[in-house]
Amino acid sequence: MLNYCLLTLILEKVGFDSHIIKFFSNYLVGRKTQYVWNSFYFLFFNVDIRVGQGLVLSPILSALYLVLFLHILENQLKNLKILVSILFFINDRLLVAQSKFFHFSNSLLFCNYNVASNLLSKFGLPVKHSKTKVF
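Request: output the structure for the sequence above.
Response:
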């Protein structure tokens, strides 16, 4: 789930106008919805703070949100001397390690995966380990 406080800090840091930051703060917080079926009305209920997949703003907000994550991840991996390339898509990522030795590549990927998944959890984006594939 997207942490709107962190997103607003990122937008401020990047230099967005205060009107845009306020728009996104209002867009993500305090939203309610109600379902209506024929003449039956459900009560209003709060909607989680999130950007729905498939919405026009989703790729933009996801990219902005992940910029800070990628910057921190890159610095952590560099400090740990873990040489792994990372390809990021909106909801998929690919870790690439190259070596003449399988055990060395495997160790690099294992370390990178742990660092990245721990950091993603701190950003409110937990990794679904069961959906993780190795090839």
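The chain has a mean pLDDT of 80.
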